Input
Amino acid sequence: MSDSESAGLLKHGGSSKKDLPYGTHKVEKTGSAFETVDWEFGAERDRLLREALQKSRQMRHRSRSKWRRILSEGISAGQGWIVFLVVGVLTGILAGMIQIAREWAFDLKFGYCETGGFWNSRKDCCRVSKDEDSCWHWRTWSEFLMGLPGSGKMDRGYGLDYILYMILCTVFGTWSAWLVRTFAPFASGSGIPEIKTILGGFVMKGYLGGRVLLIKSVALVLAIASGLSVGLEAAYIHIACCIANVVARYFSKYASSEVKKRELLSGAAAAGISVAFGAPVGGVLFSLEMLSSYFPPKTIWRSFYCAIVAAITLRGIDPLHSGKLVAFEITYHYAFGWFELPVFIALGAVGGLVGTLLLKLMVRYAYFRQSTRIARHPLYEAAVVSFFSASLTYLSSFLRMDTTDLLSALYSDCKYETNATVDQLCVESDATNIIVFLLVCAVIKFILTIFGPNTIVPGGHMVPSMAVGACIGRVFGFCLSLLQERVGDVGFFAECAGHDPCVTPGVYAIIGSAAMLSAVSRMTVSLVVIIFELTDGIDYIMPTTICILVAKWVSDAFGRDGIYDELIILHDYPYLNNKMEFVFNETASDVMKAKDLCVINATGNSLGSIANLMSTTEYSGYPIVKSLESMQLIGYVSRSNLDTVLRSRTTEMTDATQCFFTNDRPFPRNAPYLDFNSWLDQSPIQIVETTPLNRVIDTFRALRLRYVLVVRNGALVGITTKRDILRRIHTFRGAHKFASRTKRS
Output
């Protein structure tokens, strides 16, 4: 009998694409880039490591001094807190560096600082000037080319500045796309769909590497400087997760455990939102609500700790020189009136409709570019979109600003803000022009946001979509303020008596941006908390919550998938969405694998047969059966455990050394042997073949499984992996879309 036969290898068929049901297995669509994480195996491994560590401490209790033992135990116990601390500090430092570089590169399109250093942004260059709009320290490019002294004004060479602006924007956008395409293709986009897939239990090799971190940081600065309608806030999440992945390599607890690493990535994602919006609590809730599928209680506190550290570090750097973490952080001084609630509800409905339209158009264009030659020429696409964006945005001083500065102007309170930019939005005598201007800005920003995030440059949709909603919300607030001024404090506005002003348009701008972002991304609770931390006002939680709920209800009427879920579907990432509902008529037997089973007989195995089985197969685990005739399931052994036991062989062991997987027979007394019984999973998750597929999917979701064994009367008949479930869902989704298109046609 050959070695493979003595090992009890049973194979039916000869499929070249193999499912690896335990440990790590490849996903068919995406090749070797994706590997799955076994949550149950990771949890069991951590439990065994803790027990071993506790026994080791007890054995070393007498051999070490008291203080040395306390120090050793403290370092071991505090390793988790240390790694979260390092990630938070590095995230805050890198976010500060990106903000400083972004502000300088963005202003470089307009000119340079002639006095004080070429590396200074316009704001830093004109800090000593009383009038920033006419700062003689700042020299525009037209003044430089015409040999004129610096004045900071944009009207001395408008045409020449316009041409140079479009050229520099195109160069920056193309440069950013070239860096991504040449050195790190994974650095494109916001990275949130991929982070969501990774936290869902899949490994994307190279996506969180050091090269991606470097290229994304540099290319993100260039993308923002190009004037493309992308935001750096969503990209902070990917950058923070890259930092966490790199730092985890130097901590053994996280380097050797994919489950532990995902806890760290959840905290890093919270830190990314914390430095993006100055919202540590909102960052934790965002990671819990939108990203993580595995979030144990201890991770919540550590994530909050990491987010707080990142926010404190960024505030210490103070890249904006204002004491604020973000440019559009603002504090309002008046509570809302109850008469405003119907307007908030209407604003939420409008924000939900416009946000849904933006989402659908972004996804439609993403599918369109993927099915045409546009995706094959990303550099040309980035150049064309950058040039088109620059040609439109330069015509307006508001659109010419960075999106974060635009939000700061739209959120401003007319009574407490006195700069010239804000004053243009507060002149009641020019109400018609202001309303038309804001609506035109919203339309232009809406159109540019369809194309900008779909290029390969780094950046997300968060802030651009918020800018569209802020313009619409400012129109609502400005119109209501005008109506209140003309009607007076009577009737519907009787509550305004004694309050001047009564209606704050900036409040409507920030609530409108929240409604827009909720419709595009389907954020709810986390978005409410982020807005609360941005405004530093508990009085606005109720109107913000109402507006977001209405926007969510309206957008859900057209589909429950947000932009992240849509992009996951577009790229066909192996992600099992907990929010999706399916109605299947199949059972577990319809999706299980029965022909590619590879099992080990519990008896008649030798060291050579097991080693041969390991070298001739690529499976990551093997079911153990009592006999090949009965196929009665005994347990499951992973490939990693087999490797561990085989490495423990002594010098007197040969290929004929017996191997045991059960303890129901006597072991040899005068000969060496290997006992695998303690390494078996003797209670693997099992389902019967008649289990409805809907229940199987719920089991995979609830227990975060990678595989289940299918049995019939205790006999093994097949195996179902997460890959099989995803393949069936993918087929169902494709058939559903085809049926929908057929009905419309």
About this structure: Residues 1-33, 735-745 have pLDDT under 50 and may be disordered.
